[in-house]
Design brief:
The protein has about 325 residues and is of the alpha/beta class. It has nine helices and seven strands; from the N terminus they run αβαβαβαβαβαβαβαα. Bound molecules: NADP nicotinamide-adenine-dinucleotide phosphate. Belongs to the short-chain dehydrogenases/reductases (SDR) family.
Length: about 325
């Protein structure tokens, strides 16, 4: 027999643990399985006549294009920003949304090399458009093959290029866009939203050291902004999106079996943002399997985590090898 004090303590711990599990399960289920019925309505002007615009960086392909496509179907205007495939992406969007031509705009910019004055000029040219959604999506591993390599094999330029593309651009661009987003939200009695694309790799993957580190920056930067905006009552919500493997133009070989297509992943992002913001989250993995995988990375023993991560990348290396 346990002494009554000890059994009371154990009972309290057990009850608190069960409540904690039930609370988190409820949050998980509402986020992943009860999609919003009118997604992103909070980011549209209340007058229902002004078009809200979304600016999506890196949106000529992959997840960015998927988001543009989905947002057009929700009556947002979209601004495509990319470097090489802009006109082809715009033609595809025009074909998919024949009645939305006036809601598609585009800019060509090399986000990896753009100096600050060019970024400032871009922001100035956006002034007339009521932008309420800023999606910092551009990012990749901008290296000549092999893209998966040991850190010691990086050239200095590879390091700078990855940092410039994956975090330098978004950092300057976001700072310059905050006054615009604040103004648009305040003058239209609605809210604005910043989404920042990180990755499950943010915890540090072998063969992807610099990419992982930039994605950790995206995550930490986004979380800091979310907290700053909330604490100081900005009319801007901010959320970090943390994908696992998504089938895109930039990630198409050696995929994990459950990897969603970019268009499906984009739909999940759009349908889950409202609930994630309502729950007060700083981040979300919109696809439930990714959410579980990424959570597991934080709790598995390190030896197992390392082995699993290496296996994921080595499958990709093998698939790239076969393609060449
Ligand atoms: N796919 C995944 O499995 C996965 C997983 C975790 C995180 N993510 C993150 O999700 C985001 C999107 O990934 P994705 O796989 O959809 O990418 P993607 O298919 O490789 O597409 C990248 C987009 O970025 C644009 N881009 C590339 N370099 C650029 C440059 N120098 N200047 C301007 N635009 C440039 C490309 O356009 P142009 O070619 O026209 O320039 C394209 O529109 C990234 O931040 C990535 O880190 C992806």
């Amino acid at each position: 027999m346990l002494p009554p004090v000890l059994s009371n303590i154990l009972l309290s711990i057990g009850t608190a643990t069960l409540l904690f599990i039930a609370y988190n399960l409820h949050r998980f289920i509402t986020l992943h399985f009860l999609p919003s019925r009118s997604p992103l309505a909070a980011y549209k002007p209340k007058d229902h006549t002004t078009t809200s615009w979304a600016l999506i960086t890196g949106s000529s392909a992959g997840i960015g294009y998927g988001l543009a496509n989905k947002l057009l179907s929700l009556d947002f205007g979209v601004i495509i920003l990319a470097h090489e495939g802009v006109s082809e992406a715009v033609s595809r969007l025009h074909a998919a949304h024949p009645n939305a031509s006036a809601r598609i705009k585009s800019f060509t910019l090399n986000c990896m090399t753009a100096p600050l004055p060019e970024i400032e000029a871009l922001v100035a040219s956006l002034e007339p458009l009521p932008i309420t959604l800023l999606i910092n999506n551009v990012g990749s591993v901008p290296l000549p093959p092999p893209v998966f390599r040991h850190f010691r094999a990086f050239a200095a330029a590879d390091i700078d290029n990855t940092i410039n593309l994956n975090l330098r651009f978004a950092t300057h661009f976001t700072r310059l866009m905050i006054p615009h987003l604040t103004r648009t939200a305040s003058s239209n009695a609605c809210r604005a939203l910043v989404l920042n694309l990180s990755s499950g790799a943010r915890t540090g993957m072998p063969y992807l050291s610099i990419y992982s580190a930039t994605k950790a920056f995206n995550h930490s930067f986004s979380s800091a902004l979310t907290r700053e905006f909330r604490h100081f009552d900005y009319p801007i919500d901010c959320l970090c999106i943390v994908p696992g493997d998504v089938r895109t133009e930039g990630n198409r070989l050696g995929m994990q079996g459950n990897a969603p297509l970019a268009k499906d992943f984009a739909r999940m992002v759009v349908e889950r943002v409202d609930e994630a913001v309502r729950q007060g989250r700083v981040e979300m993995s919109p696809y439930w399997r990714h959410a579980v995988q990424i959570k597991m990375l934080g709790v598995l023993p390190e030896g197992l985590t390392r082995g699993e991560m290496a296996k994921v990348i080595e499958t990709k290396i093998e698939a790239f090898g076969k393609e060449q």
